[in-house]
């Protein structure tokens, strides 16, 4: 999942399906950051978006806060190219290739951001608290700066995962759908909140937001079979049966169970917090 070329291939199609859900999560995350204070409209505010992808957070920040300098970063050049292609107005967005596991360097200088944002990316890394990733993110922040993180909530109600599993098992009843993430990767709110607290972040607030993945039948089929997103590619690669039959079964489920793809459950875990106190 952390291989940049995998995400390069997903860039062009990302906004059509996955981006729709992540934008809803990003909108609520920005509101939560504002509730924590200080405001993104402050004269000294500066934001970095880690694992920015095609810009779910960045573009909403740019639209709401035209004066806010935003550094949009990602490990995938293809994603950042798409992010800039999606920009609809002259903005204060700059981009930089950054590995979010070790983000400090170039324009991402220590202590220089009032806000560190990241949506649907941190869970690509193992143990973000225990292996020092969140310590690095804290270092990017000015004193009292705010971190705002969104994750996919991969609970048992994760619609795309369940839909695939139901279709695959109808074709091969012995199929076991592997977890979406390996052990030691975060899958939801409890780990996010506990992880932030364990490395000393203060004023931690978290919630689960149900966004749905309601992209319609054609939208879902496009996402699953043609978008190049690493999630469906991984599922398909691990299935030994007839994928053509799985697709037919998926179409039936979308029609009969998921209301033509307009009721596919998907949630995000969202958290905001303030930088740990520096001695
Ligand atoms: C699911 S997408 C989320 C994109 C966007 N933030 C959103 O909410 O729609 C995950 C992103 O993380 C990026 N990514 C993967 N590994 C990374 C790493 N080590 N450092 C920075 N970005 C990474 C991918 O290229 C991809 O753009």
From TrEMBL:
UniProt-listed InterPro entries: Methyltransf_25 (IPR041698), SAM-dependent_MTases_sf (IPR029063)
UniProt keyword Transferase, yes or no: yes
Statement: the UniProt record of this protein carries the keyword Methyltransferase: yes
Gene Ontology annotations of biological process type: methylation
Methyltransferase domain residues: 48-145
Gene3D superfamilies cross-referenced by the UniProt entry: Vaccinia Virus protein VP39
Keyword terms: Methyltransferase, Transferase
Pfam families referenced in this protein's UniProt entry, alphabetically: Methyltransf_25
GO molecular function, one term: methyltransferase activity
Protein known as: Methyltransferase domain-containing protein
Protein species of origin: Cudoniella acicularis
């Amino acid at each position: 999942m952390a291989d940049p070329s995998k995400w390069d291939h997903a860039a062009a199609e990302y906004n059509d399906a996955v981006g729709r859900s992540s934008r809803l999560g990003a909108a609520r995350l920005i509101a939560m950051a504002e509730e924590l204070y200080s405001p993104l409209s402050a004269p000294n505010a500066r934001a970095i978006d880690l694992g920015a992808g095609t810009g779910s957070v960045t573009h909403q920040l740019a639209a709401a806060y035209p004066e806010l300098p935003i550094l949009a970063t990602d490990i995938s050049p293809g994603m950042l190219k798409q992010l800039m292609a999606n920009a609809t107005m002259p903005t204060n967005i700059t981009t930089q290739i950054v590995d979010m596991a070790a983000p400090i360097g170039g324009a991402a200088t220590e202590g220089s951001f009032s806000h560190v944002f990241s949506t649907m990316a941190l869970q690509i890394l193992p143990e973000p608290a225990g292996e020092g990733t969140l310590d690095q993110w804290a270092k990017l922040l000015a004193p009292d700066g705010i971190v705002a993180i969104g994750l996919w909530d991969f609970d048992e109600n994760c619609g795309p995962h369940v839909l695939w599993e139901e279709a695959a098992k109808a074709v091969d009843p012995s199929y076991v759908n592997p977890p979406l993430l390996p052990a030691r990767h975060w899958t939801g709110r409890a780990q996010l909140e506990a992880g932030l607290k364990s490395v000393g972040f203060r004023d931690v607030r978290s919630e689960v937001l149900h966004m749905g993945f309601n992209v319609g039948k054609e939208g879902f089929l496009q996402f699953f079979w043609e978008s190049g997103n690493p999630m469906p590619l991984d599922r398909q690669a691990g299935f030994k049966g007839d994928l053509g039959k799985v697709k037919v079964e998926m179409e039936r489920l979308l029609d009969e169970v998921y209301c033509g793809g307009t009721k596919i459950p998907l949630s995000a875990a969202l958290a905001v917090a303030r930088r740990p106190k520096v001695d």
